[in-house]
Amino acid sequence: MQEQPLLRVEDIEKYYGDPSAVTKALDQVSFTVEAGEFISIMGPSGSGKTTLLNCVSTIDTVSAGYILLDGKDMAAIPEDKIADFRRDSLGFVFQDFNLLDTLTLEENIALPLTLCGTQPDKTVRRVREIAEKLYIGDVLHKFPTQISGGQKQRCAFARAVVCRPRLILADEPTGALDSHAARVLLEVMAGFNKEMGATILMVTHDAFSASYAKRILFLKDGRIFNEIRKGEKVRGVFYHEILDVLSLLGGDRPC
């Protein structure tokens, strides 16, 4: 029997506003994500990509349709269980890092483990193991205000994966980084996907960032406009294929 996909999005719609002025942000969007995939969502401003990520992350709710993780309808999770579900099943990476400045990097990364009651010795080992993979093992004692933007985002990624979530959600993770820091982060994300089977769903407007994914969904006016797969292509070829689709889409292209 064929295994079900990790994530199934079925005919979802999202409306904002009141009956006199309704905005349809998502219009019958459907796709699946298999465990171990690295998928990017692209589209011009207002295409619905962030709304889609917010619905998948349970930050927002759909107006119609279903989103299922491991076959479980996420809309049916009781309100008092949502926080536990996010902590145990989802990892979040945001453009603005969302680190706590009063905690060291080690404490920031350890926070999800602490919240779920992991033993202190296991927490220390896990944090240091992840930090070494992300090239921040030597700055764990520092506070976020004492490190670079690239180190902050790698710390944020470490915090997102330290509990081994079923799905990692990244919203413009390279948006606040310079080109070198962005490349390091993307290499790390691709490495976690390849070597550890991490499943990643990333929203980005940047073709270079998207070229690290294995599959790309393009949104336009709240609907899926196109889909391309990397397959056996080298990343440079895939990058130019992305640009070709963006030119048809009317999306953002690098200057």
Separate helix tally: 8
Helicity level: 25-40%
Average pLDDT score: 92
Q: Which parts are unreliable, with pLDDT below 50 for 5 consecutive residues or more?
A: 251-255
The portion of residues forming beta strands comes to 25-35%
Radius of gyration: 18 Å
First-to-last CA distance: 49 Å
DSSP strand count: 10
Describe the protein:
- By secondary structure, this protein is of the alpha/beta class.
- 36% of the residues lie in helices and 25% in strands.
- The protein is built from eight helices and ten strands.
- It has a six-stranded mixed sheet with strand order 6-7-8-3-9-10, with helices on both faces. A four-stranded antiparallel sheet has the order 2-1-4-5, covered by helices on one side.
- The N and C termini lie far apart (49 Å).
Give a topology summary.
Layout: E1 7-18, E2 21-33, E3 38-42, H1 49-56, E4 64-69, E5 72-73, H2 82-89, E6 90-94, H3 105-115, H4 120-133, H5 149-161, E7 167-171, H6 179-196, E8 200-203, H7 207-210, E9 215-220, E10 223-229, H8 235-249
Parallel strand pairs: 3-8, 3-9, 6-7, 7-8
Antiparallel strand pairs: 1-2, 1-4, 4-5, 9-10
Summarize the structure.
With 255 residues, this protein is of the alpha/beta class. The chain is built from 8 helices and 10 strands.
